[in-house]
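Below is how a single chain appears once it has passed through the pipeline. First comes the sequence as given, then the structure the pipeline wrote out for it. We keep one example in the README because the format questions we get most often are answered faster by looking than by reading.
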Amino acid sequence: MVVTKVEKLEPLPLRNEWMNDLAQAVAFLESLNLAHGDLRPENILLDRNRLKLSDFDCTAEIGTDFEACVAPYGRVLNSNETDQGRRGSSGFLGPRTEQFALGSLYYLINYGFEVYGDRCLTEDPKEHGPKVVDLLQKMEFPKLNGDPLIDDIIDKCWHNKYAAVAELAAHTQTLLAEGTNREGTNAKTNDEATNTEVADAREPNGDSCDDVDQGHPAEDSPSKKAFCQNLEKRGLLQLLSSGEPEQLGFTFEWYRHSC
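Resulting structure:
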């Protein structure tokens, strides 16, 4: 196993922005009764200083069997979680799986390496991966000794403390203001911070999803709820899984089609 760590972490305000970008994007999918299903670094794009989700091949309705479980962004269930699915499986897609993956992504953003990526857990490097899977199944996580506010969010994500991703998104929203107090820098306003996009998604008629206020849970915004219901009626789930992004109004030519 080769241990890889970034030489220097990004400034705290930017990391806060990234955490909020991811939470707001996943919360938007949740408002459509969808889960991304494959949240990991390879499926996240950096657009200037903003993070956006990509690769919706595994996106499915909440409650669907979770198939793309890749440690440390997913974990298999233990015997105490039978309500979440069969023991030894990845369980059902939903707030539990999505926030767990986000917790591990937040760990990577704020510590500079993946969960247990700073050490070799076994004498044989090839056994490191299975060991990580085993530790996560037992709910054993590395010690968190970074920023207390961020560590609190990571810990809650790993332990399924948020009833919905929208609740997590509301929490990450507060980091933007907290960042001003903690580092003495000017955090962006709520209007700027809530301009989160899901892979620059647009309505089929070309209208931007930026019209939706993603800074608040769906149930608090009737207009957002109506917008999301409209997308469902237009067959968003089927289009996301079709591999034909142009049907959704996507114009980027760099979309990675899978064969």
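Residues 185-219, 250-259 have pLDDT under 50 and may be disordered.

See the next section for the split statistics.
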